[in-house]
Each structure stands twice: as C-alpha cells, then as structure tokens.
Predict the structure.
Amino acid sequence: MSHNAHVPIGPYHPLQEEPEFYKLVVDGEKVVDVDVRIGYNHRGIEKLSESKSYDQSIFLVERICGICSSSHPIACCQALEDIGGVEVPERALYIRSICQELERLHSHMLWLGLAGHFIGYNTVFMWAWKYREPICDIMETVTGNRQNYAMHKVGGVRRDIEREHVSYILKRLDEFIKNISILKGAVLDDPVLHERLKGIGILTKEDAIDYAAIGPVARASGVDIDVRRDHPYGVYDRIKWNVVTQEEGDVFAKTVVRILELFESVGIIRQCLDKMPEGPIDSNPKDIPPGEGIGQIEAPRGECFHYIKSDGTNSPVRHKVRAPTYMNFPTFRETVIGETISDATIILAAIDPCYCCTERMLIVDGSDKNIMGAEELIRLSQEKTRLIKDKYGER
Amino acid sequence: MGIKEKILTKSLYVFHLSSGSCNNCDIEIIDCLTPRYDIERFGIVLVGSIKHADVLLCTGSVNRLTVPRIKVLYEQMPKPGFVVAFGSCGASRGLFKDSYNTGKPLDEIIPVDMYIPGCPPRPEAIMAGLLKLIDKLNSKGK
C-alpha cells in the first residue's frame, strides 16, 4: 500500500531567496509529483512599461531581475532599434558585449556558490563569492555601479571605457582566471561531487527539445543552441569563441557547462578589449516611429526575448517580455520525478531559476466560450431544467 | 530601555524576507556574508526562521499576495524585534508604486525602525545601517 505525503516548500523558506511555493508529493523518499504556485513576485512590469516613456522603460526592465540587469535593457534597446532602424556605433556594440559577458561571469559564479551551499559545500560557496568580487569591481569600473548598471540606452551606451581602465580590467581578469582554474579543479576532480551530482536529474535530449529548454540547461543535454551564434547580435560574429555543450543532461553536466562558459566569456572580453575601435558611443536617435520590433539576447540563463509595439508616441503600446526561466522551469517537473527528496533541492537549483524574471501575467481571452465561469454554468443548468419543464408542459 | 536590548547588540540575528524584490538587494545581503565584507564579525547572522530572529530585513515593493504573509511573520517574530526596510522599494515602493499589483508601503503595514535606501544599497551601506541599529539599541540601553 502506498501513501502519498505532501512536503510544502515555501513561500518563505531558507532554501530560496525569493518567495515561491512548491508542493512535493512524495511516496516514502521518492518524489512522485510536484506542484508550484507562483505570483509572490509579480510586479506588473509589462503594464507599467506602457505608462513610461521609452527612456524610462529601459530603467524599468533593468529592475525585472537583479542578476540579468544588463540582458533585459540590451534586449529592450535592440527591440526599439529594430523598430526605428537605428544604427548603433561599433564601439558601443563592443562595450555592450563586454557588459554582457561580465554579467555572465558574475551570474555563473553566483550560481556555483549557491549550488555548493545547497549540497553542503560551504567552502565552494565562500570561494565562488569571493572570486566573484573582482567581476563586480570591473563592472564598477566599466559602468559605475555594482548592480543595476544604468549603462544602456537606445542607440548606444552611456559610458565609455577609458584607455587607462583597459589594463586594470585585464589585470583583474588574469587574477580571476587563475582563481577559477583552482575552483574548476576543486569542483570537477572531487570524487564526492561526482558521486553526488552524476546521474541525478537527467534531462534527455528529446525532453529538452520537447520542453523547448534554452541556455545552459539545453546545452547540458546536448542541444547545440545559443542565440549569440544562431542569431548574431552585437559583435559575436566577429570574434572567436565556442558554444559549450555536454551530452549527459544531469546536474553534473549543467555544472560543467557553466564552469567552461566562464573561460569562454573571459576570452570574449579579452578579444573585445583588444579589437575595440575608437569612435562615438551613441548615435542619439530622436524618435521611435510606429511599428513592431523584437530583441533577443543570450542572457546567462538562456534566451531573453523582448517584443515592443509602438504607435509613434513616446511610450510603447505593448511590451512583452519572455525571460529564460519561463522555458526552463517546466523541465524541473520532468527531472525531479523519481528522485529522492534530498536531491530535489539541487535539481531545482541546477536550472538556475529566477522567479522575478518569470512572473509575467497572461490573460486568456474567453470569447470562444471554451471557458465557463460560475454564472454561465448556472445559467446552462437552469436552461436545461426549463427545457425539460417545457417538454412536460406540452404534454 | 531594558537589559534585553543590551544583550541583543552583541549578536543580531537577521531574517531576510523578500516581498517581491528584483533579486538585487537579496544578492547584496548574501554578499555581506562572504569573505570580502564578512558581516559575521559584528555578530550579525542570517537565520532561516523568523522565530529565531531579532531583525526582519524586508526587501522589495510589497505586493498584494505578500501583505498578509508579512503581517503573520511580524506577529511571529519574538519581541523586542526590529524591522528594517531595505532598498528603495522597501522604503518607498520605488519604481513600482504605480503598478496594479503593488500594495501599501511597508511602513503602513508594520512599524519600521530603520530604512536603508539605495537601489541596491552597497554592502558597505548595509553594514553601516545595521551598525547604526546597534548604536541605537546601545543608546536606548543607557
């Protein structure tokens, strides 16, 4: 006889920083099903953006997520530039790419630390966050802020990288690469971690394609997908780099993909600093004509997509955001079923969920009458009774 | 005030509550615990349960779903307890004050003892803020 128990996690739980509610249905130690309840982080950003001017909405989308606060503004700028056909100066594109890769470095280091914390390796947590600090320093040098960079605008960027800063950035990157090489060895050669992470939460290639997983989650399952290569933006078609993929699809493969991507990102930043031409950083576009535009970008967690519709006024008519976790999140249910409760944590952490990115709202239009509310059901029921009454009345 | 506050100043236990923030403040709070800033040298520790906490650190603009939960958490906090509104959103709802899903400001829901402004506050600002809270408690104790 099996007895299913429910294990509630959240909404305020020490496991996660953000409020989110999970219900694990367990049979003994095994997870049988999982349910999720969201909405604790919904702030109505898409609607709010319609009441802001274009310049303001870039600051707004920056605050969708604190970790991707370079990806969302760039995607938003790209959508607006797509509408207006705005040319972005070459130097600005290089600076944008540098910001993007710095963000990927800091996001992956952050994830590595938290993942280490979840499986009880607090040393990895402390190390990863300590080695992340130089990246924050570089960010401060380039953009002026540790977080929420306020760097990007339609038609370019706000701040230039000074020539004397380049040597400082390269020096800090050298230190960083030395540190993460040690970390890479410590993480990837540890037999305990192999035992703990290998074969856990496997997402097969077929499932990854069916669920339309993106970013490191898909790449760890052998799906060779990357917006930077498939739909090049910025300067990614002009520099040499590789898309990192793994075949296994387990938690260990996801860790390996993220660690190896750190090295690729450092390579991209070095090439960008080397090849960056002199010139203006802003093309100062005057207004946005009516039309529709999209912007897509490879955020640290996968593809981030912005759609903007303009009617020629100062603010968008419709602003749609699809953040990467929205696509990766359903794979959690697929991977966690059949695993033990103790592994559920790290399997959830392995997709690197970001709830404040994900919580957009969608209204389903009920005009096709497939959806019935209480009133309609009662009316339908009463109508049937009336029909029967009429039938007996006739006799 | 009493001896309770005086003892509290040696080790503040902090519970971090994210009431619909953008993650930035939360990252900077965790950053304070890591080797460069290391807030634990002042005896300040992040705890997992509100029932162990002396300080409720509340980040983000409060939304309609989290308002009742914040009230419950405040009631469960052992007294004397202190509430810190963290970041621009916690202090004034910031950029999101016009949104349809944003609730009342935090200081109209529960009494707030201190504000740490910034979007997000730097780790140095967080430390300065919490140390000021300790100073405030010390001056009360005399």
Q: What stands out?
A: Residues 96 and 102 of chain B are 7 Å apart (CA to CA). Chain B touches chain A through 37 residues (CB under 8 Å).
